[in-house]
Each structure stands twice: as C-alpha cells, then as structure tokens.
Design brief:
alpha/beta; Rossmann fold; seven-stranded parallel sheet; about 20% strand
Length: about 375
C-alpha cells in the first residue's frame, strides 16, 4: 500500500508532528510505502504565541517529510497536490486540528479525490478549544471533502457528525510514542503532582492552583508545571502568590524537549488534567504509557481515556474544591500505588494499531471498487 500523510512534521514541533512521525513509522514497519508532506510555514508569526515553531530536541522524531506547504499560500497547495499525485498513493491521510487550515485541507482533499485518490481526515479536534465566528463553515468545508474520517473519542465523533452528517467515521484512541515512555516501573507512592504541556486558558491550570491551598491544608505535596506558557505567565504567578503556595510549586516555562519527557513523568506520582474542555489528550496517553495515574476533569473525551478508579480519578470541570478532594483522597488512600499496578496489568497495545488498520481497510476497499 502507498500512503501520503499531510500534516505538520519535524522539524516542526508539537503533538501533531509527533503523531505524524508515529503514523509514518507504524505504516512503514508494516511494509507500506509512505510519503509525508509537511509545512514550510505553519502559522504566521503574529498568530503563534510560543517562542518558536521549530523542534530543537536532540531526539529527532523525523519522518523525512517534504516541507512544501504554506498555510496561507495556495500555490504551495498546488505544488503539494502535484507531489502527492506523482507519488500515486492508494490513500492520503490529512491531520486535522484547527479550522485555520480549513481552506488548505478542503481544497487539497478535493483535488486529490477528483484525481482518484481516497482521502482520510484524522481529527485530533473537530472544533478548536478557543473558537472563532467562522469555525463551523471552515470545518464543514474541510471535513466534507473526506471519504472517511477518524476521531480519537466518541464525543468528537458526535460533534463531527453534527457538522458533516452521513460520513463514515471511525473512533480510535490516540497511540503513545514509545520514545516518551520510561523503562522503569515506579510505585507512584510519593506526593508530586505534574501539570504537563503548553499552558492555555482551556487547560484549567488556574483551577488546579485554586485547589492547592485546600490540599496543602491537609497534607504536604508539590506541584511541577512543565510546559510553555501561551497565556501570560504573570497571571499564574500572581495566582500562586495570592494562594500562598510558592514553596510548593515549581514552574518550568519552556517547550520540553523530546528526550526529557520520560524523566519528567518519572518524577511525578500523579498527572492532573484540570481541562475546562477537551476532546482527547495526548498527555494522558503519555502518562498511562508510563504507568502514571491521572486525575482529570470529566469533560469531552477525557472520561473515555481516564476510567474512574481504574487508571485515575475524575472530577467536574472547573470545580477546584472537588479537584482538591480527589487529590487528597489519592494521596491519603495511597491510590497511586494501586492504580499504577492496574495500569501496568491492563496495558493494551493492540489499540495502537487501529488507526493503521482503518487506513489499510480503506485502501483495500478502494482497490476493490476501482474500475
């Protein structure tokens, strides 16, 4: 089978680029020939809140992508179309996460379908976490161009079908990169909380900070915040000061390099995801692949990844008191050790291949229906 993947890839950074690498590697390991089409320019600088869009990790998750696309340059879309068409794939897989890319994805997918190429769109989000007035139109234009769609949660599937009804949609949980997993099995018997990943409003870090005084009134623990702040860091520093928790919070405000990820998850005894809204979470998958239990808000697809009492605990989104009570229960009842054992015992790597198997099935169906 010949597959083209269209989406951000190394040297661009972030979870979607990591996933493109995983998909390239997984398809290649199964004997398929894979082409990756990536971006020369992903976002205009004025729209990107981080320090840089490029990955400076020593551990390079590199799928040898062709850097062709410019998000706002239709000439680059036509050039990408020509390169994909010349490759003659059985199926093209688009990575989708943001309506900003709707014109690009919708246009390129339509061009490819008219030339006889099956198109799959893999949705990491359907709607963005921080929306705009034209999101629904852009989403419909892009996703209606697909032959088949993949989401990573049932909640996302429902939202997707509300926008583009009648489409074939598969649900498959996100995979976890083995490069982010430690080989050491930790007991998780300590009292270190981890908040990991870029800090944006919807991530609910303010909810976790508001919970900390109640937690610290009942037990001693520490919080590590590891990730780049896309929101002004001063806002959170002020909250830390107002809650008088400076001695129990450590901030590592930067993009965490790939090779550093396993060690950070080794330090923690629980990951907290206090998201106000969510579709799924690559961070939760990294935690679970490291045998690290998760305390997460019961929103979107998080409740599909985090099973209360099995691999973590859930609480109502935005409720800092309920979060504090769950953290206290987690530590005082020594749930870390018990849940970590359950995670290790229940590890299921078969779900990792479901995305690939869906793509293979679509390709086979395409061959059967070809004239």
């Amino acid at each position: 089978m010949r597959v083209s993947i269209v989406g951000p890839a190394y040297p661009l950074r972030g979870g979607i680029a990591h996933h493109a690498y995983w998909l390239w590697r997984e398809l290649s390991s199964r004997g398929h020939t894979v082409q990756v089409i990536s971006f020369r320019k992903l976002y205009p600088g004025i729209l990107f809140p981080g320090a840089t869009q490029l990955d400076d990790s020593n551990l390079k998750l590199d799928p040898h992508a062709l850097q062709i696309l410019h998000s706002l340059n239709p000439v680059s879309w036509l050039l990408a179309f020509k390169r994909v068409k010349a490759f003659s794939p059985d199926v093209t897989v688009f990575e989708w996460w943001q309506p900003f890319f709707g014109p690009l994805v919708g246009t390129l997918a339509r061009l490819l379908r008219r030339s006889g190429v099956k198109c799959v769109i893999e949705c990491h989000n359907v709607f963005p976490h921080e929306g705009g007035p034209f999101d629904r139109l852009l989403i419909r234009f892009a996703l209606s161009a697909a032959d088949h769609l993949i989401t990573h949660s049932a909640k996302d599937r429902e939202e997707l079908l509300d926008v583009v009804s009648g489409k074939e949609v598969s649900v498959s949980s996100l995979p976890a990169l083995e490069e982010f997993s430690s080989s050491r099995a930790r007991s998780r018997a300590g009292r270190t909380i981890l908040f990991f990943g870029k800090v944006r409003k919807y991530k609910g870090l303010d909810v976790l900070l508001a919970a900390m005084p109640r937690v610290l009134s009942k037990l001693d623990c520490n919080l590590i915040i590891a990730g780049e702040f896309y929101d002004p860091i001063e806002k959170y520093q002020r909250l830390i000061s107002e809650h008088r928790i400076e001695n129990n919070v450590r901030i590592d405000n930067r993009y965490i390099r790939n090779e550093e990820v396993p060690a950070i998850f080794e330090q923690a005894d629980v990951l907290v995801l206090p998201y106000l809204s969510a579709t799924q979470s690559g961070v939760a998958r990294i935690a679970l692949s490291n045998g690290l239990p998760v305390i997460a808000s019961n929103t979107g697809g998080l409740s599909e990844a985090v099973i209360d009492g099995v691999n973590g605990l859930l609480f109502p989104p935005g409720d800092s008191k309920a979060l504090a009570d769950q953290i206290v229960a987690y530590f005082t009842e020594n749930l870390g050790t018990a849940l970590a054992k359950q995670i290790r015992a229940g590890s299921d790597h078969t779900s990792q291949c479901r995305i690939v198997e869906t793509i293979e099935q679509i390709s086979q169906n395409s061959r059967r229906t070809a004239p």
